[in-house]
Specification:
Oligomer: single chain
Strand content: 25-35%
Largest sheet: 6 strands, mixed
Number of strands: 10
Strand order of the largest sheet: 6-7-8-3-9-10
Radius of gyration: 18 Å
Length: 241
């Protein structure tokens, strides 16, 4: 199982949002770190087929990103995923399962299974508009994995969550990485420090570092910040004094 990006480029007029990115991803959790504007979301949207690259190719086990069978293998949680406030959690998952082409009996089984897995079983009959931010994010991850995807793309999934919710979410992501390629985009270093099997750092549309946490020569957060913004390092040090 392998997701291959070969010289993937995205250009908007004179701005290059992704610059000849070549990387091969295998099962596990891959953390994608980068400041706002680094190109993370553009890259993930191309991997999900939402954006078409200006150049290069994206394929999964030889299947191009434009093919239906590629999309069947994909689960995606965008930074702001769309939901219907008046739907209950269970109705929303059943609706998404129908869009993904799951038979009704299978959709019901998966919906019940996932509501339990993301700890929303007790509020499954309540409207989504009554959910907390963390509950909505857990519902988002449930809809992303309804079709048992082999590629799971998560864009800033823990943004705005409290520490307890973030830990719960990280544990869920780590579990998914056992059987799938999980690409986790974030600017929160602790999200990837605890669960990522591999870490990519992105800046100005390029991958500027690729390795594991064990290959980092110092504290991961300090190392990451030093690659992007020396001023940010100074602020962190001052806050810790």
């Amino acid at each position: 199982m392998e997701l291959v990006l070969d010289r993937v480029t995205k250009q908007y007029n004179s701005k290059i949002a992704a610059d000849r990115i070549s990387v091969s991803l295998k099962p596990g959790v891959i953390g994608l770190l980068g400041a706002n504007g680094a190109g993370k979301t553009t890259l993930m949207r191309m991997i999900c087929g939402v954006l078409k690259p200006s150049g290069g190719t994206i394929s999964f086990d030889g299947i191009d990103v434009s093919e239906e069978s590629y999309r069947d293998a994909l689960g995606y949680l965008p930074q702001d995923f769309g939901y219907y406030p008046s739907f209950t959690g269970r109705d929303f998952l059943m609706y998404m399962a129908a869009l993904k082409g799951l038979p009704k009996s299978e959709a019901k089984r998966k919906t019940d299974e996932l509501l339990k897995k993301v700890n929303l079983e007790q509020v499954a009959g309540k409207k989504i508009k009554s959910y907390s931010g963390g509950m909505k994010q857990r519902l988002g991850i449930a809809q992303a994995v309804l079709n048992d995807p082999k590629i799971i793309v998560l864009d800033e999934p823990t943004a705005g969550l409290d520490p307890k919710e973030r830990v719960r979410f990280r544990n869920m992501i780590a579990d998914l990485g056992k059987d799938s390629i999980v690409l986790l985009s974030t600017h929160i270093v602790s999200d990837v420090e605890h669960i990522a099997d591999r870490i990519l750092m992105m800046q100005d549309g390029r991958i500027i570092w690729d390795g594991t946490k064990d290959e980092v020569p110092e504290d991961l957060e300090h190392f990451y910040l030093s690659r992007f913004d020396d001023a940010a390092v100074e602020e962190t040090e001052e806050a810790n004094e």
